[in-house]
Amino acid sequence: MKNYPNVTIFNHPLIQHKIAILRDESTGMKEFRELVEEITTLMVYEAFKEVPTQKVMVKTPLELTEQTMVADNAVTIVPILRAGLGMVNGVHTLFPTARVGHIGMYRDEETLEPHPYYCKLPDGIEKSNVILLDPMLATGGSAVAAIDELKKRGCHNISLMNIIGVPQGIETVATAHPDVKIYISTLDRQLNEVGYILPGLGDAGDRLFGTK
Q1: Which of 42, 64, 72, 123 sits between 20 and 30 A of 198, alpha carbons compared?
Q2: What is the pTM of this model?
Q3: Is 82 a catalytic site residue?
């Protein structure tokens, strides 16, 4: 795979440990959902070391002191429905006041092309750092379409976070949107003939919500 300056692939042992359990077909829905949230939190902690901050005055039991805090409305979370919803709480663990928008995409099972059907975003999102969430980066089509929707609404500081991706998906997004930062915890081998990631973990949405 070509090197892209906007792509970060994590190789943290804690993340890899959790992904090994996540992949296991015997991992139940509750544990699967918890692991997705935990992995997301670890990724966000590593990725957002330069989040916008502001200075505030805090009164300790002894004196008044100037401290640094995350700036108001610095981060907005946008999951791609439906599987992206499983990552939201993982971001909220570190950014509990972050607002949440939603983008709905469905994939044509024959062409694998994405089709947007829903987009609801908070007012002022264009001034925020947007974290776009989807556990799997397969063909990259849904991510590109979702980023297109965000840019139509004036967003310019966008980060895409995926738990598992493949070279094809990374190349698609990085080529279409070289200004978007892409964070992936694990790079898998390839897609199969119907667009599933190998070795992957199956359908993330089904495993998160118990629909299969």
Answers
A1: 42
A2: 0.91
A3: no
From start to end of 11-157, where are the E strands? 53-59, 64-70, 75-81, 99-100, 102-107, 114-120, 129-133, 136-137
| List 111, 148, 153, 175, catalytic entry | 111
CA distances from residue 153 to 122, 129, 140, 148 in whole angstroms, order as listed: 11, 13, 20, 9
Q: What is the pLDDT of residues 23-69, one digit of tens each?
A: 999 999 999 999 999 999 999 998 988 888 999 999 999 999 999 99
Give the architecture (CATH level 2) of 7-209.
3-Layer(aba) Sandwich (3.40)
First to last CA, the chain: 33
Q: In the chain, where are the structural domains located?
A: 7-209
